[in-house]
Amino acid sequence: MGLFLWLHIKSRKMDSLKIGDITIKVPIIQGGMGVAISLSRLASAVANQGGVGVLSAAGIGMTEPDFDKNSRNANRRALRNEIQKTRTLTNGIIGVNLMVALADYDELLKIAVEEKVDLVFMGAGLPLKLPDFVLELGFDKIHTKFVPKVSSAKAAKLIFQYWAQKFNHIPDAVVVEGPLAGGHLGFKMEELTENVVPLHQLIRETVEALSAFKTPDGREIPVIAAGGIYTGEDIVEIMKAGAKGVKLGTRFVTTYECDADMAFKQSYITSSEKDITLIKSPVGLPGRVIDSPFVQQIMRGETKPFNCPWKCLKTCDYKAVPYCISKVLLNSAQGKMDIGFAFAGYNAYRATKIQYVKEIFDELIEGYESTILKTKE
Ligand SMILES: Cc1cc2nc3c(=O)[nH]c(=O)nc-3n(C[C@H](O)[C@H](O)[C@H](O)COP(=O)(O)O)c2cc1C
User: Fold this and answer.
1) Is the Cβ atom of 127 under 6 angstroms away from ligand 1?
2) Which of 79, 137, 199, 354 gives the lowest tally of CB atoms within 10 Å of its CB?
3) Is residue 248 within 6 Å of ligand 1 at its C-beta?
4) CB 271 within 8 Å of CB 343
């Protein structure tokens, strides 16, 4: 009976997640959130719980005093400092989220690799090319593992095939981000409003599409699910579809450790389902936000001219766009909600209080285990 009970309890636990030679004790990854929403405080708190804490590199140098004159250097300096700060706060697994569309993507990737972050997540565009320094160094000399973020099985397969052919090396894992996620979304507006493909279908399709690829030690490529995952029960469901890990953004915003101002977090808590809305972002992608008087102002086209110190996103036509997305996001992270909006996942309205990251981990793990137990009974 003792052994039976032990096996029973053990099998309820979430399996750890292996990406390359890195073992993540709890397969929960915190999504990188920019601008200035997930920095060292949130990332280290998540890593200290056995998950992966992720710094967002988007606009990371904007609070440096010389940003307007020296944007490129300011970003590099700020990212290096933030990684080093995170390391002083945790011995756990950390990552950096990099948008492929960033003008200084290659340089920031180099900083992440030099600082030996465990994982780099590459989203907002297909990471087909790799900077020369990666190829010159060779993958076996680099500690950092590369994890593209996609929104379809087709995109995942394309990246894996391209890397296999060009680099004789494939990404170490892939994140599939579905239509309920927060921030910029890799779907057309109509794909988010009609005939929406659910995340579990995207996961099944991606697992299938990547089945021909194996990790160097012969395992399946870990597929990580993101977008709308909020509870332990959600984790059970998505793992049944084939995910080996989950990536959560929205759930970690309403924590004490989240690096955003309290007003940003409160906008989640006071929102209701009808407030979660979609906008067309100036970078050419839809974005999910919390509705507000400022969002309405933008929708009516009432925006003020702005000055672009440097073109931070390759895809932004800064002379034509009605506002600067980076500035608006930084404003909201600093609590200036009258001149900024909060990016948010579909489930943002479900938050009722500010919690510690540890409480969220406890709830997710407990919810996961009790769901498994229920399905076994
Ligand atoms: C406030 C906020 C900011 C985000 N910023 C970024 C970002 O700068 N770059 C990026 O690739 N993803 C960004 N995301 C997406 C998250 O990394 C994550 O994949 C997503 O939030 C998962 O969905 P969920 O919020 O429903 O859990 C952001 C999400 C939120 C909620």
Assistant:
1) no
2) 137
3) yes
4) no
